[in-house]
Design brief:
single chain, 5 strands, HIT family, subunit A, 166 residues, alpha+beta
Length: 166
């Protein structure tokens, strides 16, 4: 189905001003930076760490097994990563995918990043990648109509399943 389009060029100044104000705001301590210093432990949600990056449970998961891979250093974009951070990030992302496959045996996976607030990043100033196991038929009426997600396991259970595989 083709989308209809219409011009609203008069909104350009508004969009630019909102974008500039959002990018200028410093909302205080970064939760991901605080987590980067926490130990690998069920109580912290940190599943694994390297010298440069780490894996943590998503505190607000879209579904069971939803994990985040993050650089320990506070950067907002891929291009800010050093070559060593970049290589380590993607090696850890791959290890996380393997761990999710072993722990859950999903039908598929979503792996991705929302770069910037306009792209959907909840914390746009600290780069993070998502790894989310998916199953055929895992979207139901609660998600589609009720805009509610039902999680059949606790974060502690997710941590135990995945940590054993990382």
């Amino acid at each position: 189905m083709a989308l209809e389009r219409f011009s609203a060029a008069w909104r350009e100044d508004y969009v630019a001003s909102v974008s500039a104000s959002l990018n200028a705001d410093d909302l205080g301590e970064c939760v991901f930076c605080a987590l980067a210093e926490q130990p690998v432990d069920e109580s912290t949600g940190v599943l694994a760490r390297t010298e440069l990056n780490y894996v943590v449970l998503n505190a607000f998961p879209y579904g069971s097994g939803h994990l985040l891979v993050l650089p320990r250093r506070h950067v907002a974009s891929l291009q800010e990563l050093s070559d060593a951070e970049y290589e380590d990030f993607f090696l850890l992302l791959r290890s996380t995918v393997v761990a999710i496959e072993k722990a859950y045996g999903p039908d598929g996976l979503n792996v991705g990043m929302n770069l910037g607030q306009a792209a959907g990043a909840g914390i746009p100033k600290h780069l993070h990648g998502h790894v989310l196991p998916r199953w055929n038929g895992d979207t139901n009426f609660m998600t589609t109509i009720g805009e509610t997600r039902v999680l059949p396991e606790s974060l502690q259970s997710t941590w135990q399943k995945v940590h054993a595989q990382l």
